Amino acid sequence: MKSFSKDAGSSHIKVVAIACIVMGVVLIAGALLLPKLLGDNSKDGPEETTTAAEVTTAEATHPEETTEAVTEATAAAQPTTEAPTTAAPTTEEPTTEIETSTEETMEYKTYMDKIRAEYVTQVPKDVQKNNTGKLEHIKYYSKKAEKEKGAYVWLPPEYSPEKKYPVFYVNHGITGDEGSMLQGFALPEMASNLIQSGEAEPMIMVFTFMYTNKDKANCTAITAEETPFYDAFLDDLTDSLMPYIEENYPVLTGFENTAIGGFSMGGRESLYISIMRPDLFGYVAASSPAPGVVPGKDMFMVHEGCMSEDEFKFDPEAAPHVLIIAGGTSDFVVGTFPQQYHELFEKNGTEHIWVSVPGGNHDGSVGIPLFYNFLKCLFKAGK
Q: Of 121, 109, 147, whose CA–CA distance to 60 is shortest?
């Protein structure tokens, strides 16, 4: 057996130790250099990214957090017992969905497209409270009725006789009077709040008494014999009431500065009057409009009609900036006549906004959202 001397063993150990030290240095250097060679950025952690979908919303450019935007051609509603509202639209012409996290100006083909796209279906409760305007009752001489008639004039918050204001004429339902539209539709309240918040133009509202009869003071029945006295309001309004308002209040006149709207019979007359005098009214709204502008028949009577179905239209060059019709699917009073007006306008090529309210009745469940949107858009076309 071969043996090693003491010196030889010592030399062997030194060689092994040196080899171990060299290998350790190599391993340490590799551990330090390898991440850099591989491009490892784990020191700071992975960088997070945000997709466009996470920072955009499908809301129209409204400042109210409590409202929903309608983004189709028409709007419909689900009224509640506490606050009438409207629901999603149901027609086949959807408009472009607005996706933005900040308020921005959108491009629309017409002003009506803008209103349609931004139509609000739920009216905030606080907007329906607190009338801060001033209400005055007036008497004017009606040439058509050959006697005095009454009306209410609503003056906006911070009204000044030194300024001039556009005018909105508001028409009531059958058997009503000039006070009928002051309740149930929150018009003075909504106008007060929207004007003060800057969402509506300061305006004067005139609450009319439509029934124009030389021999009777008020309508006493829903009959074919009575309805012509409502159609006669066309002459009373244009020949007597409007001149009185223009002489006694600081109002702006003409198509750009005059609106007309109403409920039930008031909606019917708003459509009829605006078609007959398109030169006067640049903004038109009809909530649950009653039948009779064109021939028809309902549970009350046969309507001869004020014009033929082919005449029920606006010439494109004379069309209002805004024309809105709304009706409820549970309206037992006027039934489907509001929708029939919509279909006639559609057939005759008149641009308008149709609002169908599922479950909506013959009341504020249809009218409050309609007038809320109408007030917001009045007198702003072209601005």
A: 121
Question: Can you name the residues that pair with 285 across neighbouring β-strands?
Answer: 261, 324
**Greatest Cα pair distance in the chain:** 148
Residue type, 326: A
| Distance (Å, whole) CA 374 – CA 367 | 10
CATH number of the 111-377 domain: 3.40.50.1820
Helix (H) or strand (E) holding 15: helix 6-38
Q: How far apart are CA 221 and CA 267, in angstroms?
A: 18
Six token digits for residue 196: 């003060």
Using one digit for the tens of pLDDT, what is the confidence trace for 169-196? 999 999 999 999 999 999 999 999 999 9
Domain boundary assignment for the chain: 1-40, 111-377
pLDDT digits (tens, 9 = 90+) for 303-343: 999 999 999 999 999 999 999 999 999 999 999 999 999 99
Determine what percent of the chain falls in helix, strand and coil, rounding each to the nearest 5: 35, 15, 50
Q: Which two tokens stand for residue 276?
A: 């007959």
Compute the distance between CA of residue 107 and CA of residue 98 in angstroms, rounded to an integer.
11
Bridge partner residues of 258 (DSSP): 167
pTM: 0.74
Closest residue by Cα to residue 326 from 169, 125, 123, 119: 119
Tokens representing 103 are 């308020």
Given a contact cutoff of 8 angstroms between Cβ atoms, the answer to whether 122 and 86 are in contact is yes
Q: What's the rounded Cα separation, in Å, for the pair 64 and 79?
A: 19
Measure the CA–CA gap between 288 and 182, rounded to whole angstroms.
17
Alpha carbon dihedral 38, 42, 45, 47, in 10-degree steps, equals -10
- Three-class DSSP category at 376: helix
CA 84 to mean position of chain CA atoms: 14
Give 26's contacts (C-beta < 8 A, 6+ positions apart): none
Point out the residues of the chain with pLDDT beneath 50: 1-20, 22, 25-104
Q: Which residues pair with 170 in a beta bridge?
A: 207, 261
Tell me the β-bridge partners of 167. Answer: 204, 258
